[in-house]
Amino acid sequence: MYPARFEYVAPTTVDEVLAVLADRGDEAKVLAGGQSLIPMMKLRFAFPELLVDVNHIPGLDAIDDADGHLRVGALVRHNDVVGSDMVSRTNHTMAAAAPWISDPLVRNLGTLCGSVAHADPLGDWASVMLACGADVVARSTSGERVIPMADFITGPFTTTLEPTELVTEVRVPKYTGTGGGTYVKLERKVGDYATVGVATHLDLDGGGTITNAGIALTSVAPNNVKAVEAEQALVGEAPSDALFAEAAELAARAAEPKDDVRGSAEYKRNVVRVFTRRALTTALEHAQG
Amino acid sequence: MTTTEEHAPGPTTAEIGGVGHSVKRKEDDRFIQGGGQYIEDISLPGMLHLALLRSPLPHARIVSIDASAAEQLPGVVAVVTGEALAAHGLAWMPTLSGDTQAVLATDKVRFQGQEVAGVVAESPYIAWDALELIDVEYDPLPPVINPKVALAADAPVIRDDKEGQTGNSCYEWEAGDKAATDQAFAQADKVVSLDTHYPRSHPAPLETCGCVADLNPVTGQATIYMTSQAPHAIRTLFAMVAGLPEENIRVVSPDIGGGFGNKVPIYPGYVVATAASLLIGKPVKWIESRSENLISTGFARDYYMHADLAVKNDGTILGLRVNMVSDQGAFYADAQPSKFRAGLFHVVTGSYDYPAAHVVTQGAYTNKAPGGVAYRCSFRITEASYLIERLVQNAAYELNMDPADFRMKNFIRPEQFPYHTPTGFVYDSGQYAAALQKALDDVGYAGMPKEKEEARTEGKLVGVGIASFTEAVGAGPSKDYDIAGLKMFDSAELRVHPTGKAILKLGTKAQGQGHETTYAQIVANELGIPASDIAVREGDTDNTPYGLGTYASRSTPTSGAAAVVIARKLREKARTIAAHMLEASEEDLEWEPGRFFVTGAPDRGVTIQDIALAAYSNYPEGTEPGLEGVHYYDPPNLTYPFGSYVVVVEVDEETGVWKVRRMVAVDDCGVRINPMIVEGQIAGGLAEGYAMSSMQFITFDEDGNCIGSSFADYLIPTSWETPRFQLDETVTPSPHHPIGAKGVGESATVGSPAAYVNAVIDALLPYGIRNIDMPVTPARVWAAMQEAKAG
Amino acid sequence: MNVTATVNGVERSGEVEPRTLLVHFLRTVLELTGTHVGCDTSNCGACTVLLDGMPVKSCTLFAVQVDGRSITTVEGLKQDGQLDPIQQGFKEMHGLQCGFCTPAMMLVSKALLDRNPDPSEDDIRWELSGNLCRCTGYVNIVKAIQWAAKERATA
After folding, report:
1. What interface predicted TM-score (ipTM) does this complex get?
2. With CB atoms 3.0 to 4.6 Å apart as the test, which of A60, B203, B393, B773 could cross-link to A75 if both were Cys?
């Protein structure tokens, strides 16, 4: 109920943050939205010695596409994504997922980048980023790294991020031709984690053939997982119900769900199958519409 | 006994705001401005904070407790252990069910979350820091999780502290007539059976439990601010348990943020805070966290029920047999009338007319938190009502009868009231068929076959579920009802001031039910004093008459009746004073709301305000001055609200996800004092019923770990999932209540779960599924469909 | 550490540890007890306050984070002795029973109506879905907000 003691600093530039992390990254945690970190601190599951509050740093809250991809800054809140015209025009998967992150209050403070860096296996954004082939940009005093999402998460709450690094943005590629996607989430109630979540992302060429496919799953594996075989079955093919059913079956096989209060493993695998089929159909509708 | 017809004073104007008016609530003014005073808002000079250390294990011997590091933490004032309490005879306390419960564990811990030690510190932050420094060595014992397993001969004995306890049986109780029931079953064409588990859930009011114990070392006065639904009973029990002189104990229940039965029992935290305040000589505040609330305070339900219904082929019910095992947790701490070990569960015969029933109930100790009677259950009527309404639905299917027709055929008919049930209840009044018909009409029942067919073509399964419940509230008559020996009357003390305003004090205690408004309306109805001129007080044992509190929907039937009786007594005295003022004889006076006047000369009259002043300044010789009195009401019977709920759901066959298309709730709680407040109570209950039927439960893994001890796992539906409701009513007064009112606070929680579940079962009729235990989650729906397909 | 924030329009200061949650700063240091604690896992929303007009869970923020910012609690809804239409609506439509979730519900409603003066029932229920109520079943809370929306429109 009450967190353990910690030191607190609130730098006003990224360089200051990086300097602190270079010095004390091992015992520090970055505080952005805090909507995942603070609850853990209150239960004393997390007890960093130092909290580095990055909320006072200007310029980190932008969503833009200046460099040909969609850039989401470190302080972009979930609600900023919900309300972003640019996102709704540029990436249907993100637009579909954003309203379903946690609850309206959390969405006012929690950040997309923070969520991705936190790497909660039940978190939604990581699946979206995996499906869309996003990159995570991390900075330290040594420089900048661009880490493909597929390489970023290595275990529950574990990423390739060094304690000295700060995630400054996430970069999401735009559709190459026409494209679409969605995120379908089965949750017991608003604010619960996904029982099952499925993110889809399709790029189609002028002839309507799928050139790129992303399918990623939430809550049905040790981490958010790309259904690679399912994706590969779609690439180069013309969309059809039969194709989507096949991909859905492969996605179900890629899942490694566990029995728990939200449902049996068999049930969750079934939902992956059903949702993948539905989510691919919706992705196609967006691409064609 | 007075009845509605004999003394009904006639309708009042909106300005007076008597019975029947939807008067806006007086209590709202402080709440909407953030001015409510809940326990956590109370701050006394020098106040310290108590935090409790709890067992991580469900069953273990305590080998040692080392609190030395905690005691040395700056800001810590004291650490209390079971050993320290034992020296004062306080390590164990009696429960409301005649058992004992550990205040702080001494020999063993018997459930995960059990209280082991307490830290008193200058701030709650420091107290919780100190908890981490207490070193407890445990020797784990095998946990006993399933109550049926607990009752087996070879199960480890949990209550080895009780002399003569050889197993885990907590109680055995039965009701009805076995021989008559056997005979009824012998004549049956069919026996329809149902095995179902009503899962463990928790009332989880939004405010957790807590207290501020202020034992003043100078005056010897003990003031205990407490989240208590029954402050007077608590005061008496504290006096008996703690040996404090009762005249020096003042229990004050301030504003309470929801009770739902969670705030009736005495919890170890209250006792430890009181002991700490006594030992330290400073006020001690204890507020539990939500996790503590869910893992250790009075849970609800957890009944494993088997029922058999004996029927004839034409649908006539002949008899009912019920066998039930109750999971009581580690201590038998139910807050319920002492003669009834399973609360009022034997009302399970329901709304139907048949002569024979036999109910056998068994309680088992398990390594879980104690409790069971809570969460708007009307003393276990939630469990009973669920069972019978699920059973009759299944019986209709087995007989190929429409479930509405089956109910109509068997309902107790209006002319049969007062109706003696086979398990000893005397239902006061009812119009069950009329209520069900109204619900069916409102929901469009006749169009259901077409609606189901249309849904089929869209790949959806639609189902309709009914629950026609009768429940029993207003405990209760002293010949049958007591809690810990205290009879279950209740009280009202009314004083009219010289300026014509009044103050009304009662032995009940609201936690959101609107008593400050509705009780004033009752008195307004009788005396014509505007409800807005009547102040209502509850909760301070120094300033209110003795009563047993508010739970089990008892306030209107008991204190409400007391308020009517005393108001009528005062009106009779007012008549005497009026006669004196008007120089007329009492028989020549007539009453209209707020005024006595001379028959035939309506201009010759005096208002109740005039009379109030005269009571202090111009009363007849030989009359006692003033206009006040107190009445303790011993109800002659329970009251029996009833209703019919109909729910239409659609089920996604691929995922098992279901949602409510529409829901109609027809309630009959007799005369409605404040229709707006009544509807508010019903809406709240329907939402709770939805929660229990769809997503809400506390469960345990095989190691005895509690799953559901935070709001992350114990799910409360939000405004988004909660269905929308259509409310309707019938009004069948109670013949024995002075204004014909019955009480309604728990009806919707009692009646609605069966309606939701019956609807899902109905949608799954093509699969032939007859039971899915609550919560009926999408995963369970899907699993039931797969099992049906395979089998 | 010192925290200085504008609370209900007035500059307020207090001494806190970094770990002091905003809700405790408000309740204990500033003695504004209208904001309530209902859970310990950030699931119930009873602690909601407005941070620069935006509804947030004050139990999931440290007091030090709001230094220099503006907070509105339930005590700040009444202006110049006049109840906010939201407050009036909750009384008119019986939008509260025990009152414990009510400050939070009203603040979320105010933020909603400030942004969307004519919300549908779905909009309202969606916006409230981070705030739990145990008493009302949400029915009359929705009606209270609809009443307030109408009242604000005609004012």
Report:
1. 0.99
2. A60
